[in-house]
Amino acid sequence: MRTLVLNAGYEPLAVVSYRRALVLVLNEKATVLSESDDVIRTVSDSYQRPAVIILNRYIRPPAPRVRTASRLAVLRRDRYECAYCGQHAETIDHIVPRSQGGPSDWFNLVACCSRCNHRKGNKSLNQLGWTLSFTPGPPTQQYRWLKDFDRPAVEWQPYLGYWEKTR
């Protein structure tokens, strides 16, 4: 049960638990823009679960951090699609194998299915005659810091669309 937090300028800021969102609303630091059908019951009251809230005051967004490439981050960047065949990817592959001096960075790691990873083995793309469908690199700034954005809730769509149009 996640809640999208928008900055005062309607830009996505974070995804928090519904409890944290409710605390922000009850302390009058945020306003509810969209509610879900779920009801939260306390000892003395009941509330609709907030799906989207907006902060009452603008806060400076966190500075983008340069993250190191991890298995999960590479899979998310490539949307769990194999860079070689387009099937569902469950592992990562070094384009230039580590044994040939390939680094473990954003430019040399891609998501890969088990079949292609096994077929590629310790060979380079030139040896196999394979090509990549895209040029790997670090994730884009957009939504990079938004946790759980790869599974956005239905209630978030109007607000994410608004932010996309204003950029």
UniProtKB/TrEMBL annotation:
Any one GO MF annotation of this record: endonuclease activity
Domain of life of the native organism: Bacteria
One Pfam short name: HNH
Cross-referenced CDD domains: HNHc
Keyword Oxidoreductase among record annotations: no
Signal peptide (from-to): none
Domain HNH nuclease: 69-118
UniProtKB keywords: Endonuclease, Hydrolase, Nuclease
Official protein name in the record: HNH endonuclease
